[in-house]
Amino acid sequence: MPQPALAHGLFDGHLVERAPLILTAMILASAWGLYILGSRRIATRRSEAAWLHGAMLLAAFAVFGPIDDWAEHSTTWHMVQHMLFMVVIPPMWALARPLPQWRAVTGRFAQPVWTAILRVGRYPVPLAMLHGAMIWTWHTPKLYQLALDNLWWHAVEHACFLFTAWLFWWSMLRANPKQVPQALMANLVTLMHTGLLGALLTFSSTSFYGESRDVADQQLAGLIMWVPGGLIYLIGAGWVAWRWLTRMWRRQQAGGSREELG
User: What is the pLDDT of residues 5-28, one digit of tens each?
Assistant: First the structure.
């Protein structure tokens, strides 16, 4: 049976207690190693490689570093960890574009997985709704406390945030010109409902997560989700719009050059 989350460190506690952390470390290490091997077969840009390596280092720090221990007793640090999983690491993964490298190593074995990810990435709004459902679900008091008390559910919570956020940011930041309106709508929906959740935490006069949690600590956590988180979503929307306008400008320039030559 799952054990209480008495030790969140990778090398703390007994082997059974550390099993979820060991499994998480194996998954991260496998994804990182496959990317490195794939980079030898398919060349990658330095900027994309930097995004990937930076995201993996940050993910390892967020899961196995001191933040995870601090988050057990502080709502603010718990929110910092969640924001890393939702608005920092996933967009870095999306900008890294690791699928070609992963596909080069796994071959036909994992081809259905990569094909499914690429197909799902065409629908930014449904992915935003899926990611939003994960955000609100895991911030309900019962599941929030469950993730703190049980390492297995703690790992599931992190996986839900990371995977759905990666799909959301992938579909938005890599949207083709026809998908840009959907991508911006998905961003707006996410900005609004995360801002609402942040505002609820900020202006609440009672603790949502038990009497042992300080209200001021919860309010600061809500402010972190509301302001810095909202700013990152606005930056993402600006990047998508700038990329879209740049493509349109280039097409107009190319069309004007053709007319002059004609």
Answer: 444 555 555 666 778 889 999 999
